[in-house]
Specification:
Length: 336
Amino acid sequence: MAHLISIAPMMEWTDRHCRMLHRQFTRHARLYTEMIVAEALLHGEPARLLAFSADEHPVAAQLGGSDPDRVAAAAAIAADWGYDEINLNVGCPSDRVQNGTFGACLMREPALVGRIVAAMKAAVDVPVTVKCRTGVDDQDEDMALPALAEAAFANGADALWVHARKAWLTGLSPKENRTVPPLDYGRVYRLKQRWPDRFVGINGGIETLDAAIAHLDHVDGAMLGRAAYHNPSLLARIDRDVFGVAGEPATPDEVVRAYRPYMEAQLAAGVRLHHLTRHMLGLFHGRPGARRWRQILTLRSTTPGAGFEVVEDALAAVTGDDRRARPTVAEPAGHA
């Protein structure tokens, strides 16, 4: 596992359009899909769930499920589509995954997690990874997390990403589970000390790139989540400051122009402008004119036939430049 900084899988947020936007800021951070339920992939339309743009690489597909054979079959489909990694969700606390007995519920069944990982490893040639919590409900985290790590690594997991807080499956909503249980980064650091030769990454409550980089003194990777979604510009320094790539970080207005060819291709394919711009609302976070940027995109992107001119007008409002945004890069490669 060569990646050090990743963008977390986030339900209803990290779709292909969001990932392509983030990719305009960083070529090297690893991107993750939303969680894809294995059964939905096996019984649904793979193209709808898995289609992505070649420019998204490196990109990982995250799967949810609890039947080793079924998850492995879904992993094989995702690998055939060209994903660089397949990740197993052992951390989502939503009612949906509880009803399906997967996600964070699997923290209670490390042996089953091990069987799922083994089945996935047998089915694909790309890395298989796990993303988990430190425990659930009344579990003793001193036992739960090491047991999960032991089962995952013993069965071939290439990496373990740990959201450094418990999930409470009873008493807290999924939203509350992202903030109410206290963070315990030290527990993840100690896990890395126990597994010095295995990739252990950390997630949860990381608000800035500098904070993410600080974690790299203790673990192998740091995963940015909602902070990166709400303020994508914090991704701009990743390639330079983490991966050592020469060059100045992209500015938000440069990103808008770089993103334009992808947006226009998607609009031509029938995608509504709102599905693209909803991920862009935080681009100018903290900058004068950011409110007007959000207003224009929010109010006008849902109108029938709305096109890139809405983004041009919003960009002019925030930059004070009435020139229309011009594409500065070639149109992205075709879709995988």
